[in-house]
């Protein structure tokens, strides 16, 4: 399912340690089936209500006899996954089914928080991190990736009668939204809006780096890879003069392999950054994750159970300290 549904996510997931990859695939399967259930041409009007019933059963440890649901229910219990996170995803899918469209960038952020940042927060929980700043950066990455998706799919979405570009941006650029949806045609005005969206995504990709530094060492390469591959999609859109109406940006297999290698190298010395507040539109996701409760059982902080990760991170800190001590001498 993941190989066919998201080649970029699948490529990045190959760098995850097995202990994370298996529950991550369970999470992906549930999210993908949920998305497909709402997006299908013949989707029933109560599709989201049916998904919430499945979520009820999963959290009651009585999942439907469907592989994805059984795996998801096991993941929920093992990792103490806060229900508010998958609930947010379903809310975003509900917005889609209702034909919702963003009027402002904040609206686009709010939508992206639900359909993408919520998944980033769930992945962070799987990796044993529940600290607010780490979750905030994971949400930044999720929103950035969704903005990239929106920028890449402008034409495809328009042909389906939708646009996720902020409508006030389109109006400022002189685009008649209804006319564009009726007959999607690329021009400089659309290019300006797509470029603006990708610049916003780049800001969030940069902010996300500090969160990656807080992840377990053996998880960082995969998340770096996801960040690099999705950012590359945006660069392909830019290379096409921001025309994502008549063509679709694709990252080649060779380029993905190069980026996977880059991600492995970058993960060794991931820079920490100063804490920054979550986007106001994603703060509810951060607030939804309580500390791990040992009495409930399951998997908590991997650093406590994986001494090799601790050794790598201690060496990393020593190397940073050495570099900091050398810095004044170099400047003098």
Task: Name a few traits of the molecule.
68% helix; 16 helices; globular; single chain; Farnesyl Diphosphate Synthase; 332 residues; mainly alpha
Helix content: 55-70%
Strand content: under 5%
CATH homology superfamily of the domain at 95-300? Farnesyl Diphosphate Synthase
Order of SSEs, N→C? HHHHHHHHHHHHHHHH
How many β-strands, per DSSP? 0
CATH-defined architecture of the domain at 95-300: Orthogonal Bundle
Q: Do you know the CATH topology of the domain at 95-300?
A: Farnesyl Diphosphate Synthase
Mean pLDDT: 87
Point out poorly predicted stretches.
303-312
Characterization of the model:
The longest helix is centred in the middle third of the chain and has 26 residues. This protein is mostly helical. Helix content is 68%, strand content 0%. The protein is globular and about 60 Å long. The protein is built from 16 helices and no strands. It has a domain of 206 residues: Farnesyl Diphosphate Synthase (Orthogonal Bundle), CATH 1.10.600.10. The protein starts with a helix and ends with a helix. Helix 2 packs antiparallel against helix 13.
Question: Topology, pairings included?
Answer:
Layout: H1 2-5, H2 7-13, H3 18-39, H4 47-59, H5 67-78, H6 84-97, H7 105-126, H8 132-152, H9 154-159, H10 167-172, H11 177-182, H12 188-213, H13 220-239, H14 253-268, H15 283-287, H16 307-331
Helix pairs in contact: 2-13, 3-5, 3-6, 3-7, 4-5, 4-6, 6-7, 7-8, 8-12, 8-13, 12-13, 13-14
